[in-house]
Amino acid sequence: MATVTSIRNVWDESTYPAELPVRVRHFVWLSTGMFSAAALAVAFVGYAWTGAFEAASSHFLASILSGALFGLSNVLRFGPNEA
Q: What is the pLDDT along the chain (83 residues), one digit of tens a residue?
């Protein structure tokens, strides 16, 4: 039976308090971007399905607000450093 000696346990070597804020920042960046895209897609589908803008207006408002939060999270550099 072969043993591997070069595997390291990354969880034990990392400092948990320093890693958690980075994960939260990336989650905020990703969730605002994905919600804005999803809300915009739902708004377009709702408008195409019903043909009335009133049915899709709340989704457009949600996508605009989450897009603004996504822009703010990009300005504050919450996203990954390398794309």
A: 455 555 554 555 555 566 778 888 888 888 888 988 888 888 888 888 887 777 677 888 888 888 898 888 888 888 877 65
In-domain check, residue 30:
no
Evaluate whether residue 45 is within a structural domain: yes
> What's the domain range around 60?
35-83
Residue 65 included in any domain = yes
Per DSSP, the residues of the chain read ---------HHHHS-HHHHHHHHHHHHHHHHHHHHHHHHHHHHHHHHHHH--HHHHHHHHHHHHHHHHHHHHHHHTT-S-S--
pTM for the whole thing?
0.62
